[in-house]
Design a protein that fits this description.
This protein is mainly beta. It contains two helices and eight strands.
């Protein structure tokens, strides 16, 4: 799909942290992030092969690699040593879309409880790598319980 110029702003403004992922093929990355994961393109600079994406308050940027800002060797999987956690109200639709696309999951849907002080934070989560190998945990909050 060709990119269209847009001048819109993100819902609720810009987040305090919005990672920019350098990707090998912007069109391929958009098929994952936009078409499968449901992010919307807020704005783009097509001449730079750059997009700003958002879904449910989660924001990220994709930029096709051009050599600038690469602080080390860029080998697959990109983003080694980092995992991005993105929270949605419900991950069932995302899990279905990834399954229908036969996208390989790094870790399938599961429920986990993580201790935080005197209580536990519940998550339904799945983990996947994007086309460039960035590791992403998509999660749905289940609430809290006593530890």
């Amino acid at each position: 799909m060709p990119l269209k110029e847009s001048t819109s702003s993100p819902t609720g403004g810009f987040a305090s942290l919005a990672p920019e992922l350098h990707v090998n093929d912007l069109a391929q990355s958009l098929r994952f992030w936009r078409d499968l994961c449901g992010f919307r393109v807020v704005f783009e600079r097509s001449e730079e092969k750059f997009v700003f994406l958002e879904r449910e308050g989660a924001q990220l940027m994709l930029c096709q690699r051009h050599g600038r800002y690469e602080t080390g060797t860029m080998e697959h999987p990109l983003g080694q040593g980092a995992m991005f956690q993105i929270y949605f109200d419900d991950i069932a639709g995302l899990a279905a879309a990834l399954g229908a696309a036969r996208w390989k999951l790094y870790e399938g849907v599961r429920e986990r409880w993580y201790r935080a002080g005197d209580r536990e934070n519940g998550l339904r989560q799945l983990m996947v790598q994007d086309p460039d190998g960035y590791l992403v945990m998509f999660a749905q909050r289940l609430g809290f319980r006593r530890a």
